[in-house]
Design a protein that fits this description.
By secondary structure, this protein is of the alpha+beta class. It contains five helices and four strands. The chain has helices at residues 7-13, 31-44, 74-88, 113-120, 122-127; strands spanning 49-56, 59-65, 100-104, 107-111. The strands form two sheets. A two-stranded antiparallel ribbon has the order 1-2. A hairpin with a 2-residue loop joins β1 (49-56) and β2 (59-65). α2 (31-44) packs antiparallel against α3. The radius of gyration is 16 Å and the shape is elongated.
Length: 128
């Protein structure tokens, strides 16, 4: 799967720690958000490590840690991740446009109006 990701996201996937699933499981609409998050975290801890990057309940979940367990900016590191996760609740997972959370068939997504219609209307899903 990671071979299908754009180069900047594959580079982020290279940060995944041994023993964790080697996947970035988010929609392409969040790739810019993820790249910005990676740059911000790398400024604090250039060798930081990811354990998971996924979508859960319609928002980004980014489980990462500084390369040094006693890093002096660990709180700031966590704040940056939380801010990106919060921002993901307003960005379409599919296209990156402004969005809101949508629940359909037991799943929660963050989608713009057009993508929400595609996901919640099965007849449009096959056409899109």
């Amino acid at each position: 799967m990671n071979d299908e990701l754009p180069p900047q996201i594959r580079t982020i996937a290279d940060r995944i720690a041994d023993g964790w699933a080697d996947t970035i499981d988010i929609g392409p609409g969040w790739f810019d958000l993820l790249a910005r998050l990676d740059r911000q975290l790398a400024e604090i801890s250039p060798g930081y490590v990811i354990e998971q990057c996924k979508t859960k309940f319609g928002t980004l979940r980014y489980y990462a840690r500084p390369e040094d367990a006693d890093h002096t900016d660990a709180a700031r590191f966590s704040d940056i991740i939380r801010d990106a996760e919060d921002e993901s609740a307003t960005v379409c997972e599919d296209c990156g446009q402004p969005a809101q959370q949508v629940t359909s068939r037991g799943w929660v997504w963050t989608l713009c109006t057009a993508h929400a219609q595609q996901r919640t209307n099965p007849s449009e899903m096959s056409a899109g």
